[in-house]
């Protein structure tokens, strides 16, 4: 236990130095393996284990044993139980055991004015009954169904959080939390949950003023969602996955996406809750915009030019990602380690960098496990400043 506490202090210091603008002892590591990967790696049944969260500790423990990370390398925040109880259409368990997010339309195009006028009421009265069939009923039954789902949510997340605490203490992980809260960019919320990718793409051409106003109307709700319940701290961040921007024309990004997104990140930072952005797809044409975000915004990149990102953003923001998980599957062990060296040589100088992959490996066969272990072991033992 004493060794675990000492290790936790050392790992915590790595991330505090990074966030404080100091050079840490070595490159910090934070990789995350989702529940689906962890279940497969532990040799458990994908369908069964997601319904029985009492198995989580043993499943996640196996990941913690075998993969180097300075912060807890496992996470789970969506379970099928409460989605099934709600009759969810936006998150549906597939026959292969993976929770899918199909194209859904919770808001009709002709209902934009209702949403803009009062987004909260519109969500409660119109959108939720469309997305969750068990809420499309009389008031009494709706209340009962919602109570059942909320009880399931509390039970599942309670088991998960208790498991996280045990594993953090057992393995001596650092205390920074880059998933302390969760929210979405306002336009991403309108697209993902209200209008669908196809719908929002059409709307930007046909009713652009309403799309712009809807993103603005959603912004206070996204700010409120992102203010996680734990006390504000620069060492804990709100996670924001970014979706629509790479698929938009730059002029549309400037009008529909950027203003409300910037307002969201600035409001969170002002309240003491920095943002942890998953910069999905290719954002290279938007780097000058990203620079404008509050200092120490965490940005994990999926694609792009790490040299350019380091040059433009590395003095102000915290950078991660870029390591291709595809190489972990196709490359030799030495090729994988050499790629880690290459990326670290580009991004580590001056600090403000931690090692992570470009995306999470969702399936066990999406990476070569031995290559993955070797890369993480190399960073943990060789990537000293």
Write a brief caption for the model:
The chain has 385 residues and is of the alpha/beta class.
Question: Can you give keywords for this protein?
Answer:
single chain, 385 residues, alpha/beta, TIM Barrel, 5-stranded parallel β-sheet, two-stranded parallel ribbon, 16 helices, globular
Characterise the protein shown here:
The chain is α/β, with parallel strands linked by helices and 385 residues long. The chain has a single domain (2-382), classed as TIM Barrel (Alpha-Beta Barrel). The chain has 16 helices and nine strands. The chain has helices at residues 2-19, 35-41, 46-51, 56-66, 80-86, 112-117, 119-131, 139-171, 186-206, 208-226, 250-270, 287-291, 306-313, 325-330, 333-347, 369-382, and strands at residues 33-34, 74-75, 92-93, 99-100, 177-182, 236-242, 275-279, 298-301, 318-321. It has a five-stranded parallel sheet. Strand 8, helix 13 (306-313) and strand 9 form a beta-alpha-beta unit. Helix 5 runs antiparallel to helix 8 and helix 15 (333-347) crosses helix 16. The two termini are 28 Å apart. The model has no long low-confidence stretch (mean pLDDT 96).
Mean pLDDT: 96
Class based on secondary structure composition and strand pairing = alpha/beta
Which strand order spans the largest sheet, edge to edge or round the barrel? 5-6-7-8-9
Provide the helix percentage.
40-55%
Estimate the global geometry from the Cα principal axes: globular
SS summary, helix count: 16
Please tell me the CATH architecture by its name.
Answer: Alpha-Beta Barrel
Outline the biggest β-sheet. Answer: 5 strands, parallel
Look at the structure and give the CATH class: Alpha Beta
* Strand count: 9
> What series of H and E elements makes up the topology?
HEHHHEHEEHHHEHHEHEHEHEHHH
* CATH topology group: TIM Barrel
């Amino acid at each position: 236990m004493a060794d675990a506490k000492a290790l936790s202090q050392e790992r915590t210091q790595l991330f505090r130095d990074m966030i404080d603008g100091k050079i840490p002892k070595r490159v910090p590591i934070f990789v995350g393996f989702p529940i689906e990967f962890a279940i497969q790696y532990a040799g458990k049944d994908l369908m069964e284990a997601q319904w029985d969260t009492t198995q989580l500790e043993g499943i996640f423990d196996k990941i913690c044993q075998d993969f180097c990370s300075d912060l807890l390398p496992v996470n789970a925040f969506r379970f099928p139980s409460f989605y099934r109880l709600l009759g969810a259409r936006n998150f549906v368990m597939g026959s292969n055991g993976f929770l899918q997010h199909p194209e859904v339309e919770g808001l009709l195009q002709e209902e934009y004015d209702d949403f803009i006028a009062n987004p909260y009421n519109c969500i409660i009265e119109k959108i939720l009954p469309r997305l969750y069939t068990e809420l499309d009923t009389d008031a009494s039954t709706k209340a009962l169904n919602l109570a059942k789902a909320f009880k399931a949510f509390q039970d599942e997340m309670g088991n998960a959080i208790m498991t996280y605490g045990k594993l953090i203490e057992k393995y001596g992980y650092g205390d920074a939390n880059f998933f302390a809260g969760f929210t979405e960019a306002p336009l991403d919320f309108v697209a993902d949950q209200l209008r669908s990718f196809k719908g929002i793409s059409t709307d930007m051409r046909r009713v652009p003023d309403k799309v712009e106003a809807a993103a603005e109307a959603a912004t206070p709700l996204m700010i409120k969602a992102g203010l996680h319940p734990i006390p504000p701290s620069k060492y804990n961040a709100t996670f924001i996955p970014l979706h629509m921007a790479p698929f938009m024309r730059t002029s549309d990004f400037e009008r529909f996406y950027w203003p409300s997104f910037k307002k969201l990140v600035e409001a969170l930072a002002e309240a003491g809750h920095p943002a942890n952005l998953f910069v999905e797809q290719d954002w290279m044409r938007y780097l000058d915009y990203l620079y404008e975000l509050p200092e120490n915004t965490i940005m994990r990149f999926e694609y792009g030019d790490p040299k350019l990102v380091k040059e433009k953003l590395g003095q102000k923001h915290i950078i991660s990602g870029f390591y291709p998980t595809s190489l972990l599957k196709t490359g030799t062990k030495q090729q994988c380690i050499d790629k880690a060296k290459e990326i670290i040589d580009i991004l580590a100088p001056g600090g403000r960098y931690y090692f992570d992959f470009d995306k999470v490996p969702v399936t066990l066969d999406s990476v070569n496990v031995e290559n993955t272990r070797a890369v993480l072991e190399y960073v943990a033992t060789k990537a000293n400043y």
